[in-house]
Amino acid sequence: MILVETAAGPSKAALRAWVRARRSERSSLDRERASTAIARAAGTLLPPGAAPCVAAHLALPTEPPTKALIAALHDAGLRVLVPRVVGNALEWVAWHPGVELRRGRFGIAEPVGDADPRGLAGVAAILVPALAVDRTGHRLGQGGGYYDRTLATVPAHAAGGPLRVAVVYDDEVLDEVPYEPHDITVDGVLTPSGLVRLG
Questions:
Q1: What is the pLDDT of residues 65-91, one digit of tens each?
Q2: Which end of the chain is more exposed for a tag (fewer CB within 10 A), N or C?
Q3: Is the model's pTM score more than 0.85?
């Protein structure tokens, strides 16, 4: 891995560019296999007795696919919320088969319909996009801050809040990623190999 080094290690910009380049080189077969494997891991996401609601995201074409995962969660009887960008924040809409989607501001599919007035209150887990995650839970996002702002509004899992899980490819779980004090950590990663708790 050849990255731009700072005193604290690779810069966020350099690591983002490296991961994005690697993702763009993944074959459609690799993405299809990842989609199937990630969806298969849906049953391991929540412990017995957890609230029957999760928040997920609709992945960009180069991200680990989440469409089959979301469908599997729904088929398991869970209520699934997916986001759309409104101003500088995310709002959440219930997903169901056939929900109308449109391209949002960043080219991400977003649901059409009424936002859930409860927002993320009562969700058992939040599946968040990431470019990389380290083994202590530091997450490298795309740089817009939407998920850091969102995660800052809900209690930490240790304080009774939802499990925060980043969805990445197996080789994007790294020993260390650059982070800043305001960056919110995650409790686990969901990869094609399954769910791993961190920290």
A1: 999 999 999 999 999 999 999 999 999
A2: N
A3: yes
